[in-house]
Amino acid sequence: MQRSVFTADHEQFRTAVRDFLSRDVLPHLDTYSENCLIAREAWLEAGKQGILGLEIPENFGGGEAGDYRFNAVATEELAAVNAALASSFGIHFDVVAPYLVDLASAEQKQQWLPRMASGEAVAAIGMTEPSGGSDLASLKTAAVRDGSDWILNGAKTFITNGYTADIVVIAARTDPAKGSKGISLFLVDASLPGFERGRKLGKVGQPEADTAELFFDDVRLPADALLGEPGAGFVAMMERLPQERVGAAVSNLAHAKQILLETIEYAKERKAFGGSIGSFQHNKFLLAELVTKIEVAQAYVDAAVAAHSDSELSPVDAAKAKWWSAQVQNEVLDHCVQLHGGYGYMREYRVARAWMDARVTKIWAGSNEIMKEIIGRDLAL
């Protein structure tokens, strides 16, 4: 079915993103995988293409697209090449940048936004903690006042870009007596004394995306490191999670769709029992189901992208897009592995790596179970 969410301008941008990926990223993917991080040269080239500045105002070196559909185009193209690219770059330009644009002081914006737009500074966000998972309201990382400064202590885990990030948005408890209303956000310079990184975590999939633990040992933060008002951090995160979740949905489907297209071609070429495996009725019916499932899910996600572009996407609808797209992605890729047979279980085959890359999408950005809880509460259950 023909998609209608994008215009000619979006498709022109899509071509530029594809050219960047083909020229500056694809030749180096194996190296990124071996090193468990994306080289800074790729970040700089992404900055030159305007990918990293989509949310950043022009006076700070960004493109200030003012249209979320450009974010979606970039995410689709990144995910179609490699899920980890969408994860790492997406955290930077689609998740963290809006926090700075909306909440940072004028001085902090001037210090960081131009460097984020250019790729000179890589950004991350620290919500998840070793004991907390998706329960953001129970975080233990804390910041206490010391004169006009803040002293930060605690730890974060599973932080995408954590090993290479220059700047990290950190959620910390500033008033233990107030529950979720005692959580604040801070912009933490990774070069500050007391900021420590753990090892690059050995994930099952997405090795190209560096992921690390972060530790804070009496990190002294200046007053303007506070993002927004004290105690307003939880609300700020809840307000911005729909964008993170619809971005995840866009990535999930683009990733699965590309591997499915490649699997269909494989099914046409792979011979068994005197014919192509795609010609067998079971496989033909299965592929028909998978294509339909992707296209139907795509229609909902496209509607969510359009709604978010008009500032009308609700947290509940974002939760629906996130969990369902992750479910569809994992179902589709599991079948793609099966259709490849034994070769589908070999790491040198792209389908096997994609299968491993996809499993985390049912966990992060709020687990699928948490998404269903959000939807269920909306049903007054």
Tell me about this structure.
The protein is built from 11 helices and 10 strands. The mean pLDDT is 96. The strands form 3 sheets. Strands 1-4-5-8 form a 4-stranded mixed β-sheet, covered by helices on one side. A 4-stranded antiparallel β-sheet has the order 2-3-7-6, with helices on one face. The protein is globular, with a radius of gyration of 21 Å. It is an alpha+beta fold and 381 residues long.
Largest sheet: 4 strands, mixed
Per the principal axes of the C-alpha atoms, what is the gross shape?
globular
Give a count of the beta strands, DSSP E runs of length 2 or more. 10
Q: Could you name the ranges where pLDDT drops below 50 across 5 or more consecutive residues?
A: none
Helix fraction, binned, reads 40-55%
Kindly estimate the percentage of residues that lie in beta strands according to DSSP: 15-25%
Structural class: alpha+beta
Oligomer: single chain
What is the chain-wise order of helices and strands?
A: HHHHHHEEEEEEEEHEEHHHH
Radius of gyration: 21 Å
